[in-house]
């Protein structure tokens, strides 16, 4: 666990402005540069057996990349922690959209963020600390997922309250890596999207991804496993008997009650058109329009 004093050694500096530079050219992803992007071709010829095996492998791995037990309770108990998390995720999603980064990069960055927060949830998270952690997590995820990694300068947008020297961000990256025990190849709800949607129209796949992005900002879903969240989003978008039959083969029986609960919450909090959650921190005001 990273103590407050050690974190301050890395970050305690006055904000400063970086020299303006030309904006990077967003990565080209077909007709739409914003995520969600279409499923990769490698999944187009996957068999049902291969899909099922990959799904089970992810389920076995996902618990190793979940936040610490009690994290959700701390988020609901301490407003400053929940606010810091929302602000950080908002920044990650916006930057990924503006720079044309892969959807998986955003989900991985949020995973690192949640795991780090959960190990340091008793700290008093000040704004500059959250800003620095957000940039560090996104930088790490970009290095893992992107072919063309954006510079640290371009990751620091006007959505942040502070700017940091590259050396400070790099030190924070190292702190995050050590805290996470260098376990970066995480399983997130987005990991399941291609396995669940490879056989359906790409527009439905995009809707599933859009729901998952919105769910990232809602602390209610922190309690649920990644697979549970992914399957719940799929059920919200595609409601057919064939789908339920497929999901019943993929999801362990003991998890079906969690899927039902998560699906109901998602339908009520995200899918319900009468839910007027349009505040400045709401998913509606953050996620790019598809």
UniProtKB/TrEMBL annotation:
It comes from the Eukaryota. This is Cyclin-D7-1. The gene is LOC105046146. It comes from Elaeis guineensis var. tenera (Oil palm). One of its GO terms (biological process) is cell division. Keywords: Cell cycle, Cell division, Cyclin. SUPFAM superfamilies: Cyclin-like. The keyword Cell cycle applies. Belongs to the cyclin family. InterPro entries: Cyclin (IPR039361), Cyclin-like_dom (IPR013763), Cyclin-like_sf (IPR036915), Cyclin_N (IPR006671), Cyclins_cyclin-box (IPR048258). Residues 22-46 are annotated as: Disordered. Gene3D superfamilies: Cyclin-like (1.10.472.10). Residues 90-178 form the Cyclin-like domain. Pfam families: Cyclin_N. Transmembrane segments: none annotated. The keyword Cell division applies.
């Amino acid at each position: 666990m990273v103590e407050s004093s050690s974190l301050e050694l890395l970050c305690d500096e006055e904000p400063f402005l970086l020299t303006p530079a030309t904006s990077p050219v967003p990565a080209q992803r077909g007709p739409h540069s914003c995520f969600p992007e279409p499923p990769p071709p490698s999944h187009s010829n996957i068999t049902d057996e291969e899909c099922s095996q990959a799904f089970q492998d992810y389920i076995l791995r996902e618990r190793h990349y979940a936040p610490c037990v009690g994290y959700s309770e701390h988020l609901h108990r301490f407003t400053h922690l929940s606010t810091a998390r929302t602000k950080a995720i908002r920044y990650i999603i916006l930057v990924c959209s503006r720079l044309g980064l892969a959807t998986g990069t955003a989900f991985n960055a949020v995973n690192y963020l949640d795991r780090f927060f959960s190990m340091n949830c008793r700290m008093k998270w000040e704004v500059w600390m959250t800003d620095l952690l957000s940039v560090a997590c996104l930088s790490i995820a970009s290095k893992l997922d992107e072919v063309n990694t954006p510079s640290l300068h371009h990751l620091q947008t006007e959505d942040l309250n502070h700017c940091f020297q590259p050396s400070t961000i790099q030190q924070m990256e190292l702190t995050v890596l050590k805290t996470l025990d260098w376990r970066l190849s995480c399983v997130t709800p987005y990991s399941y999207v291609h396995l669940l949607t490879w056989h359906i129209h790409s527009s439905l796949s995009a809707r599933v991804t859009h729901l998952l992005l919105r769910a990232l900002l809602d602390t209610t879903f922190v309690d649920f496993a990644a697979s549970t969240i992914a399957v719940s989003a799929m059920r919200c978008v595609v409601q057919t008997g064939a789908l339920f039959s497929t999901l019943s083969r993929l999801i362990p029986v003991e998890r079906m009650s969690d899927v039902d609960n998560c699906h109901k919450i998602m339908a009520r909090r995200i899918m319900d058109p009468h839910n007027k959650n349009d505040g400045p921190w709401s998913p509606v005001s953050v996620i790019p329009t598809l």
